[in-house]
Amino acid sequence: MTTHWMLGPGAIGRLLAHSLAPFVEVAVIGRRELPTRQVLTTPEGEARDQYLTSLAAKQLVANAPKPPAFVHITTKAMAAEAALSSIASLLPPSTPLVLWQNGFYAQPRITQTWPGPVLCATTTQGAYLTGDDGVVHAGRGPTFIGDLDNQHPGLAEFLAALLSEAGFPATAVGDIRSRLWQKLAVNAVINPLVALHGVRNGELRGDAYSGRVVAVVKEVAAILAKEGVVPPSGSEGEAGWLALVWQVVENTANNKASMLQDMEAKRPTERGAILGPLIERAERHGLECEVLKGLNAEIEALENSYLS
Ligand code: KPL
């Protein structure tokens, strides 16, 4: 039986582990060991027990385990490289990695430096943790998998088929780069505004915030046009991005977005992986992005106030 490692025991890592465990050997790797008895609550509210191997990265390094077929990196975006470094000495250089991060920060950096294949995944599966031994699968959604340079379509298809068989529907795609940017675009508009104002996503539709939504979309649309990234469907350009953002706001109206949750829990946010790549591309193309820079600075100042 092949082995899959989930590096990062967050909600998506544990949901993947629960899904794959009946089909392959899985090990969930984090800074510390978790209870082996883990409970998954399905979207229908059914609780399912499963015994999962959980290891602390340090323990793993001491034990020299059998090399995995895939390493899924399921940490937050800014922690992915450090997590990979902590176990890299155990991995044959040809080991395929699967990056599950938000934004567009870890993906190009790890793709450039890792000698083996690097797949990227973007998912709309919804999950959250209820403690060290529980994960709730809050909502089902599709997952797309591919590599940034379209060099490994067969591997992406193999993994997508395995995940789909495991009840985690996935499709191999040749345009994962665009899909990651499209998700980033939506995240860059919604996450900073709701985090700074402490509101649920749906409140962005109100008069107090809708003007700010339009101002952020304007900058994001200009940057993505230069990058050759178009909105997924419907109208093009700024109108297309705005329509997409309003659609996601509508669909996730009751959500407390991830950046707001990070701020409330006084954790580092993913601003570096979401706003960072946009600001960097704007500078590269000589575009103004005062609104994005302003949001980034405001979030940075708040983070510094609780992290230092
Ligand atoms: O993905 C999200 C997040 O919370 O990070 C959005 C799209 C903003 C939905 O909440």
UniProtKB/TrEMBL annotation:
Give the EC number.
1.1.1.169
Query: In this protein, which residues make up the domain named Ketopantoate reductase C-terminal?
Result: 175-301
**Which residue stretches, if any, does this entry annotate as coiled coil?**
none
Task: Report the SUPFAM superfamilies cross-referenced here.
Answer: 6-phosphogluconate dehydrogenase C-terminal domain-like (SSF48179), NAD(P)-binding Rossmann-fold domains (SSF51735)
Q: Which GO terms describe its biological process?
A: pantothenate biosynthetic process
Biological or metabolic pathway of the protein? Cofactor biosynthesis; (R)-pantothenate biosynthesis; (R)-pantoate from 3-methyl-2-oxobutanoate: step 2/2
Reactions that this protein is recorded to catalyse: (R)-pantoate + NADP(+) = 2-dehydropantoate + NADPH + H(+)
Which Gene Ontology CC terms are recorded? Answer: cytoplasm
Annotated Ketopantoate reductase N-terminal domain ranges read: 7-149
The protein's matches in Gene3D superfamilies, at most eight in alphabetical order, are given as: N-(1-d-carboxylethyl)-l-norvaline Dehydrogenase, domain 2, NAD(P)-binding Rossmann-like Domain
Keyword set includes Oxidoreductase: yes
User: Which InterPro entries does this chain map to?
Assistant: 6-PGluconate_DH-like_C_sf (IPR008927), 6PGD_dom2 (IPR013328), ApbA (IPR003710), Ketopantoate_reductase (IPR050838), KPA_reductase (IPR013752), KPR_N (IPR013332), NAD(P)-bd_dom_sf (IPR036291)
Please provide, alphabetically and separated by semicolons, the GO molecular function terms listed in this UniProt record: 2-dehydropantoate 2-reductase activity; NADP binding
According to its UniProt record, this protein's enzyme class is: oxidoreductase
Q: Which UniProt keywords apply?
A: NADP, Oxidoreductase, Pantothenate biosynthesis
Q: Which family does it belong to?
A: Belongs to the ketopantoate reductase family.
Briefly, what is this protein's role? Catalyzes the NADPH-dependent reduction of ketopantoate into pantoic acid.
Write down what this protein is called: 2-dehydropantoate 2-reductase
